Amino acid sequence: MLVELEVGPVAHGGHCVARHEGRVVFVRHTLPGERVRARLTDDGPDARFWRADAVEVLEASPDRVPSVWPEAGPGGVGGGELAHVALPAQRAWKEAVLAEQLRHLARLDVTPTVHAAPGDDARGGLAWRTRIDLVADADGRAGMRGFRSHDVVALDAMPLATEHVAALDLLGRRWRPGARIEAVAPADGSPPLVLVDDVPFDLQRGRPDPRPNARAAVREVVTAADGVSRTYRVAAAGFWQVHREAPTLLVDAVLRGAGDVAGGTVLDLYAGAGLFTLPLADAVGEAGHVVSVEGDERAVRDARRNLHDRPQVDLHAGDVARTLAGLVEGAPPVDVVVLDPPRTGAGRKVVDAVAALRPERVVYVACDPAALARDVALLGAHGWTGVEVVGHDLFPMTHHLEAVAVLTR
Ligand SMILES: C[S@@+](CC[C@H](N)C(=O)[O-])C[C@H]1O[C@@H](n2cnc3c(N)ncnc32)[C@H](O)[C@@H]1O
Q1: Could you report the predicted ipTM of this complex, rounded to two decimals?
Q2: 16 catalytically annotated
């Protein structure tokens, strides 16, 4: 059903809020202040709120720009929710969402700035993804799942992929229908890796690549605020920050947030392949101590390799909540806890255990503002009421953002 809507403020998830017949409608593809004709997509009579997609703009916002997101057939692919929004307005949008989540869920009255990553404005917010996950459609063309659908929509462009990923020409090939294609191209220009159904693939020969280093690892070099270049090896299918500038930027933010930790003890929770553990180990020095916790086996293998020459690091493989429960008993004083949980956040068990360690500071790296706000509220109840939050737009054209919060008592 088509309805005409006066569009109100932004909401979490790339929607704006409107009202229709007394009911809240979350609308995609629009901007605050616009008047749009929209197709209701979820409008059950018992639903608490409805959803809609704007299909015609009747009065456009001055922040509207032509969308760069690929025209990919009916429904379109997921992602690119903010591709119709000018870059500065995308950041203002994310600032509003971050502030609203912190106000609503943590009763915190702050207005964090969301910064552009270096080079993003010059590249028009494009060419930042170092990793692409595709799936082949029934004709063998590479594409992505449609929005809230299992159908594969073939792509004709990947505007967010870095030039290294784009140069692989994954869209110009034919694949086995249903094949999962992952491509990872380090921002430093070292050779990209391609996996097809988890198996390394030699694009030139068009067949699986048996070389051991084809499966194993991507190399990334990060030059952080401390002026040091560090090399990490990360399995192609393993977690690594996806924006080309994210590793450097987040290491800088974490080191700044942790402050002077020389000779101290730092916990790095949800450590992945050791992105933060390595520079934190250098920051505490050989007299200090870093306890790093990661649950994924593959990431732990990478972290072991990346941290092998830092004797001041204790790497624990396992669940963060369970590992912390073991650490709290008779643990030495902890100066700083760094945590970078998955999208769901750390949750009460982990926050309670962190609070029991009574660190001077907590540095929280978050990819979901709502999860951050929930955990900040829990930390606030334990006395960590000093909160500084900075946002980084590490996902231009999408509704996602990364935020770094530094909490003190
Ligand atoms: C957002 S990533 C951050 C990784 C790392 N800090 C980085 O920036 O590269 C979150 C990490 O937490 C790990 N993880 C998720 N849930 C976990 C849990 N309950 N216990 C331990 N590790 C977990 C994931 O395997 C992943 O490596």
Answers
A1: 0.99
A2: no
